[in-house]
Amino acid sequence: MRNINLRYIRETFDEKGLLTHLDIDCPDDFNFAYDIVDDIAINDPDRRALIWVNEAGDEKIFTFADIKRQSDKTCNYFASKGIKKGDFVLLVLKNCYQFWIIITALHKMGAIPVPATFMLKPHDIDYRIKAAGIKAAVVTIQTDVSDSFDEAEMTKTLACKFIVGGKKDGWLDYDTEVQAFSEDWDRVPTHKTDRFLMYFTSGTSDNPKMAVHDQTYPLGHTLLGKHWHQVDPDGIHWTVADTGWAKTAWGRIYSVWIMEGTTFVFDFDKFDPHAILSMIEKYRISTFCCPPTMFRLYLNAGVDGYDLSSLKNCCIAGEALNPDTYNKWYEATGLKLMEAFGQTESSVIVGTIRGMTPKPGSMGKPSPQYIVKIVDEDGNECPVGEEGEIVVSVSPRVPGIFIEYYKDEKKTNETLRDGWHHTGDVAWMDEDGYFWYSGRNDDIIKSSGYRISPFEVESCALEHPAVLECAVTAVPDPVRGQLVKATIVLREGYEPTEALKKEIQDYVKHNTAPYKYPRVVEFVKELPKSISGKIKRVDIRKKDHIHHNS
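-> structure tokens emitted (550 positions)
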């Protein structure tokens, strides 16, 4: 490996070899597709870039030379259809291998990919096309999402729409038509301040915001790939996510390819812990990342029958880690789960990186790439043990932090103000400098004057032997303002009874501060989750709000 990533970074280490500071020097004309992907393709053409497998057992392997060749053909194809620099292109591609080729091509063209989940409905599609002024859409045929596009009114305004994975009336056949185009493509000049990538990121009450990153964004994932995921250039990295979510940007393209590593893709429809464990064993995955909830499900399914010896590092993100899951995974595999925190608007802000000793349940320490603080409502830094909002310095600008909410100056200025990116996430710091997550500003439960972190209650409830999964939210109450509610999935062998409900309530009451115990408990068969496995507490809150007002 040529350590290509080192040309853009300067690292400082302490006497124990722990990274203490990382600076990124991004050239004015930097473009990830040319300066990382094509550079590897030219200098090490047979280096493996992508392994793709589906549930049927089909397998495709792409070298960096393959990605360069196919992305250049895609550039010429898209250009023939009028797509150009600055155009927004919606990508709804589930886990199709074509995603990696197409997004690389759009980066080369200076167009702006807008990845989105395949669960979009006509209303969602109309909103996205109109809000962003989407020029074209590239959509998988695997699900019924293309039908939703056909039903959406705004689809008629697209200059072109491409179907991937098959043929469909009224759609351009990407897979067939692209092959007729040349592999020769001349570099399109871009500047590091140009728009590079955009994600729609949902709030709790308003329409999704459009978070835009500039051309420096991929380099913002260098620390992530090298020191958190610890990508082995000669190994295989797997982050379990859908291409519609920012976690793909985090761990399935930029950080892995900057490290000249191989990204693994398993194209599945329904999450099955046994299938995931089998893939780790079969393909000898070396570094692995997914939400904490998934690790709990692997443990519940049983890991004893699988050879996981290829794993060298396991990471978690997307939601806070319960210590019980950390301890049981360590007992089962000898691997410590390395947690990190970030957002669609950022790269890793706080994390447990190479050389650090994790504290189960802690997010870790501020990334050596950024200046990170916990502040109170007046912007003053909070003392040890006091909750406040996590903020990141963006003065001067730093790679990895978004540049704007597109067409929304008000929300941009609310979030990027006074030289700081205000995350909206609440945490506290211990005496060793480790951050502990409390929740979103709108997740914190305020009951009878107390501020209660849902994560603390969940962590305690999950220690009860009957509890497989737990999501803690607030429900309105005329006396206390809000009550703590626990929505619980039970382990096999346990039945939802009033006696068990009281037992769990008493367990929490006796193992954490009594005022935190869940006064409301609901047993369910499953918790609402995103395609990436994160528990969707907002769905629980919405359902309870409707019930409360009915």
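The chain has a mean pLDDT of 92.
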